[in-house]
TrEMBL record:
Origin superkingdom: Archaea
Catalytic activity entry: (S)-4-amino-5-oxopentanoate + tRNA(Glu) + NADP(+) = L-glutamyl-tRNA(Glu) + NADPH + H(+)
Lineage: Archaea, Methanobacteriati, Methanobacteriota, Stenosarchaea group, Methanomicrobia
Family the UniProt entry places it in: Belongs to the glutamyl-tRNA reductase family.
Free-text domain note: Possesses an unusual extended V-shaped dimeric structure with each monomer consisting of three distinct domains arranged along a curved 'spinal' alpha-helix. The N-terminal catalytic domain specifically recognizes the glutamate moiety of the substrate. The second domain is the NADPH-binding domain, and the third C-terminal domain is responsible for dimerization.
The gene coding this protein: hemA
Leftover remarks: During catalysis, the active site Cys acts as a nucleophile attacking the alpha-carbonyl group of tRNA-bound glutamate with the formation of a thioester intermediate between enzyme and glutamate, and the concomitant release of tRNA(Glu). The thioester intermediate is finally reduced by direct hydride transfer from NADPH, to form the product GSA.
Record-given protein name: Glutamyl-tRNA reductase
Species annotation: Candidatus Methanoperedens nitratireducens
Length: 423
């Protein structure tokens, strides 16, 4: 009996370094290596910065994956091995963002789609994985449409952009400056990249890093020394450096505000602080620091956790539907074989009847079509109720009934195939 089995190496147990060493070769190579195993019927793999996951359909999936892990020299300490039902639940949770470091993030849904497309192109998936991945993608979309799990920024960098967007009434057409091209500055700049901003100035002590980030964002790199000239023309400045001294002093901002009528928004997410606290006293200045952004981030995290509870309920509902879908597929092979058997009988008897009539009368195309349609109708009406009963039996795990029907109509080949592919 073939089922889905999976092995997971994720941020919950493994370090980034351990996840990197667990991955050998490209996706296509790994898929081909898995598919070449005599016990593997279908397979798919997923790799992101936070996870490496392998899914196989096999009558002995646990054994296959244990051997695979040993071959890859991956410690079992950092691996979770899941059986069929656990794999299905995990996949639905994964696509919905419930397994991500940042709960509800959207990127993982696209990554699941990409993994599935790669496996399809490599011809390593079949009916069982197709059903699972299509359902997971559908559920991932539903969760995001029916809950607020992906709403609200949950990092300081993205919270800074969210605050600027709310305070400025949107960022479309605005001029923004980001000071710092390190990890935090890069996160801020990337969060700004999709906001239809008129221009993003990027300043950094190392100009080459500012250039690289600005190029990536279609922004403009400016030298660290010249940034004071660009502050007056900016709608908001987000400072995210690790400099040990104030980057924006009272004097610098006073000069920037000379002859400026509009309010200037300053967001300080540097560590230590980049903006001198007395800057907040300058007329026309709106200064926000990391503490105020933490409250936004924490509130959004709490909100997402509440939305995650709703998502959990929807996932369990969808999981039951998925299990029923698989059970219906159990009966489909028997039903298909039954229809095929009846169709062969119908076709043979119809042809014989037509030949007998032709021997005594002239029969045209219309008469042949009437006979053909009539026998089709008989067959379909006779099989309609058995079809319903067979699917109902599969949904209720009535293996004995399915075996009896297969034996009764000499459909043992179909039943064997059904059992072999039953998840």
């Amino acid at each position: 009996m073939s089922e889905i089995s999976s092995m997971l190496i994720t941020h919950t147990k493994a370090t980034i370094e351990e996840m990197e060493t667990a991955w050998h070769g490209g996706v296509d190579q790994l898929l081909m290596r898995l598919k070449s195993h005599p016990l593997v019927e279908e397979c798919a793999v997923l790799k992101t910065c936070n996870r490496v996951e392998v899914y196989v359909v096999s009558p002995k999936g646990s054994k296959v994956l244990l051997e695979f892990a040993k071959h890859m020299k991956v410690s079992s300490r950092i691996i979770d091995f899941l059986d069929h039902d656990e794999s299905l639940r995990h996949l639905l949770r994964l696509a919905s963002g419930l397994e991500s470091m940042i709960v509800g993030e959207d990127q993982i849904l696209g990554q699941v789609k990409e993994l599935y497309i790669l496996a399809k192109k490599a011809n390593t998936t079949g009916k069982i994985l197709d059903t699972a991945f299509n359902k997971s993608i559908q559920v991932g979309k539903r969760i995001r449409n029916e809950t607020g799990i992906n709403k609200g920024s949950v990092s300081i960098g993205s919270a800074a952009v969210e605050l600027a967007e709310k305070s400025l009434g949107g960022l479309s057409g605005k001029t923004m400056m980001v000071i710092g091209a390190g990890e935090m500055g890069t996160l801020v700049a990337k969060a700004l990249a999709n906001k239809d901003i008129r221009v993003i100035y990027v300043a950094n002590r190392t100009f080459e890093r500012a250039e690289a980030l600005a190029c990536e964002l279609n922004g403009k790199a400016i030298t660290y020394e010249s940034m004071e000239k660009y502050i007056p023309v900016s709608d908001a400045v987000i400072s995210a450096t690790s400099a040990p001294h104030f980057i924006l002093t009272h004097e610098i901002i006073c000069q920037a505000m000379d002859n400026r009528e509009n309010e200037l928004m300053l967001i300080d997410i540097g560590n230590p602080r980049n903006v001198e606290s007395s800057v907040a006293d300058i007329p026309g200045i709106s200064l926000h620091n990391i503490d105020s952004l933490k409250s936004i981030s924490e509130a959004n995290i709490a909100r997402r956790k509440e939305e995650a509870k709703k998502a959990e309920l929807l996932i369990e509902e969808e999981l039951e539907l998925l299990k029923k879908q698989y059970k219906r597929q159990q009966a489909d092979r028997i039903i298909s074989a039954l229809y095929s058997t009846v169709e062969n009988i119908r076709k043979k008897e119809c042809e014989e009847a037509i030949n007998k009539l032709k021997a005594r009368h002239t029969i045209g195309t219309i008469e042949c079509e009437v006979l053909n349609d009539m026998t089709h109708s008989f067959a379909n009406q006779i099989l309609a109720e058995p079809t319903k009963i067979l699917r109902d039996a599969a949904e209720h795990d009535d293996e004995l009934f399915l075996d009896t029907v297969a034996e009764l109509f000499k459909l043992n080949g179909a039943r064997e195939k059904c059992s072999d592919s039953k998840p």
